[in-house]
Amino acid sequence: MRFYLYIKHIAMTVVIIVASIACLIVGGTLSYILFKYGLKNKYDNILKEAKTEAEVIKKNKLLEVKEMFLNKKSDLEKEVAIRNQKIQQAENKLKQRELVLNQRQEEIQRRRSETEAVRENLDAQLGIIEKKKEELDKLQQQEIEKLETISGLSAEEAKERMIESLKEEAKTQAQSYINDIMDDAKLTANKEAKRIVIQTIQRVSTETAIENSVTVFHIESDEIKGRIIGREGRNIRALEAATGVEIVVDDTPEAIVLSAFDPVRREVARLALHQLVTDGRIHPARIEEVVAKVRKQVEEEIIETGKRTTIDLGIHGLHPELIRIIGKMKYRSSYGQNLLQHARETANLCAVMASELGLNPKKAKRAGLLHDIGKVPDEEPELPHALYGMKLAEKFKEKPDICNAIGAHHDEVEMTSLLAPIVQVCDAISGARPGARREIVEAYIKRLNDLEQLAMSYPGVTKTYAIQAGRELRVIVGADKIDDKQTENLSGEIAKKIQDEMTYPGQVKITVIRETRAVSYAK
Fold first, then answer.
1. Is-contact 230 236, C-beta < 8 A?
2. Which end of the chain is more exposed for a tag (fewer CB within 10 A), N or C?
3. Residue among 444, 216, 431 nearest 337 (CA)
4. What is the pLDDT of residue 26?
5. How confident is the model over 75-100, as a mean pLDDT?
6. How far is Cα 259 from Cα 262, in angstroms, rounded to an integer?
7. Could you tell me the pTM of the whole model?
8. What is the CA radius of gyration of the chain?
């Protein structure tokens, strides 16, 4: 850039000089013209002035160019000096690095020579060690041969005898340890099991379920009954055909009874009747339309109930069909106990009990929720509900231990994991607790009478009492007719007969009482 400015100023100087020369030429030309016309004197004056002025301008410009040239030269010399200084510094650094590298190279050479010396020393020591090892092996072989000669046994035979001796000793110690563990387990297992079951029951809140096989539909006035029946009963027939529910219209004021064994159908019929009565248009075509719409709504509600249940319990990854089956449990009951509430309760019990035992509570909760899915089939299977539920779980890709727990909770299949007994116990806890299941009064009384009559059929029995809602049977026998040994046998025989011949929820405790009384009177 500076060199470019320098050239520019030189060019300007040249231009000025050329302009001066041009002025001289123009002046000569003008002198000639003035001379020709008699103006020579005037021309000479002007020419002198122009020459003088040109000389002054020339000198000034030459001075300016010279000064500028000197300035540029000084700047260039400074730049050259700075660059030379930098080059000198770089050379000094390079020399310093070269010196450091030479020192490092010398250090490496020195260490390499030391390493070579150490390696040679190690090789010599290894050679000595190998020689000593060979000598030691020879001595050891000689000692073994001496021992074999003294003992009359080879080394292999002596080793085998020692191994056998150690095996026998280990077996004895292991058996003793196992016996100690078994004795300790027998002493503490019953107590620990009771503790876990009691804690599990206490930590789960439960509800008393009430479920009927009929639904009462309330109406505002008896006038609506006639509209529901329709002309010649066509409306009620269309409603029964569309829903599969028996509609009982009797003298009960402001009420219609919907009767069906399937709670889903009853719910569809109830909702359809509610919409028809609210709308006021009741005729066969409208009935079919409303029933179809309500059935779709109920199906959506079933799926929503299943999803909400799985979310509440923290169970994920279930097949959509299993979620729908769980939702259908809301409309099913077992001995009056709502099936969905029973499944949720069993799932929570399983999770608590599994955590107490150090098992996976999530898997236990999943198995507990699914254990009764065989009770809500879309078709009527011939298998027991536990086996059918296991096949459904296998069909929808549940894990083998979950499937086994479902199938084994009523002992239809063999238990192969610890989840199975947990599900079985928690199912019994949920179903056998007081208030969980409800029976019709007549069936309840008949079951109690059957229990008492069954026990009375045995010889030597004097009285029988069914107590605790039929969960305990107390049998009183004559002391002169049955001895203590026969009392124990009688208790087992009655239990087996009840188990084979009767149907009942939970379990029945049989207590046989034999006592001798001596009565005297003081007169």
1. yes
2. C
3. 431
4. 65
5. 89
6. 9
7. 0.45
8. 57
